[in-house]
Amino acid sequence: MDFSLSEEHLMIRDAARDFARTELLPGVIERDNLQKFPTEQVKKMGELGFLGMMVDPKYGGGGMDTISYVLVMEELSKVDASCSVIVSVNNSLVCYGLEAYGSEDQKQKYLTKLATGEKLGAFCLSEPEAGSDATSQKTTAIDKGDHYVLNGTKNWITNGGTADFYLVIAQTDKEKKHKGINAFIVEKGWEGFEVGPKEDKLGIRGSDTHSLIFNDVKVPKENRIGEDGFGFKFAMKTLAGGRIGIAAQALGIAAGAYDLAREYSKVRKAFGTEISNHQAIAFKLADMHTSIEAARHLVMKAAWDKDQGNNYDMSGAMAKLYASQVAMDVSVEAVQVHGGNGFVKEYHVERFMRDAKITQIYEGTSEIQKIVISRGLLRD
Ligand code: COS
């Protein structure tokens, strides 16, 4: 067993770390305050190859492994989780979904642009009444021969307003339940496709989250992904990988909050000494660091499983379940270590605490992860 990272892994991690410090950190508080989408930063991340990291170079991607991807996700999330969720959705849900299950024409037409960052993608599964219960899709796509007609509303869609291409999951035959669901590629600007108002969120405020409204949108048949009825499996398989990305995001949030707490504890004085000299604080740091290391092992194991071609449903779900809890716990403790300053935006940790919460909710709540894990355990 080898726990060390390769030269290539260290290089990509350091590139992401450097980018996060020089390009993401300067405006992160302002973007959070104003809910400002990081347009410039996303453009630069595209140029660095962060938006299509694992895609085959023949489609414009970086041809990297999942370990590289989680390293980048962690580093970006240590500074700005709003930027990292954009990276996560484009890589894990949109590019992966298209590369693994799209037709050659779809890959040429859409994936090549998404992998280079020329265009941005969104993954549209959740609805007002179908987030966790993904089979209960109310959005319908009616087969009209050479095209489908799409109607319905999607909710909480990351990159909702800024994306160019949308992977939309819809019901094509209610009677067939999960086998009557399909996934489609929809382009912004198509008639009847409207982007709803931007959500005013607790955290990841720099990313844009919208509802989407489809009103008799004509989708060509060649934009269906996979065989008829493949949509539910498409969503499940894609989300299974997406969870590894979000687990890495949660890990980064925890690690970023911990780094700030550690630094602060070495300069802030109370009772005549730096607060790190008080066991009350030193023990907190020990607990925070230990849980972060445990989360990192789970994240790396899930990424490694994916790279090895092993099933990663369970390891991805365990990584997300645990790392998101660690992100929450560690960021709350980081605020506590900072005392009154922790409650002030300038010190960053309150933003980590707000950003952490969503990692327990999106791409499957913690409760959903437990369903996935327990089913895996009890399958035989
Ligand atoms: N990979 C491949 N196939 C999968 C799968 C996976 N990870 N998970 C489920 N499936 C398949 C099953 O094998 C089954 O196929 P068959 O009928 O051919 O056997 C089918 O999908 C239905 O599976 P199941 O009956 O287990 O589905 P459930 O509706 O009970 O769903 C959960 C199981 C709850 C795990 C699933 O609905 C889920 O993950 N929901 C959360 C979705 C989510 O993350 N929402 C947040 C969206 S944010 S973008």
TrEMBL record:
Residues 231-378 form the Acyl-CoA dehydrogenase/oxidase C-terminal domain. Pfam families: Acyl-CoA_dh_1, Acyl-CoA_dh_M, Acyl-CoA_dh_N. Keywords: FAD, Flavoprotein, Oxidoreductase. InterPro entries: Acyl-CoA_DH_CS, Acyl-CoA_Oxase/DH_mid-dom, Acyl-CoA_Oxase/DH_mid-dom_sf, AcylCo_DH-like_C, AcylCo_DH/oxidase_C, AcylCoA_DH/ox_N, AcylCoA_DH/ox_N_sf, AcylCoA_DH/oxidase_NM_dom_sf. Residues 6-118 form the Acyl-CoA dehydrogenase/oxidase N-terminal domain. Belongs to the acyl-CoA dehydrogenase family. This is Cyclohex-1-ene-1-carbonyl-CoA dehydrogenase. It comes from Aequorivita vitellina.
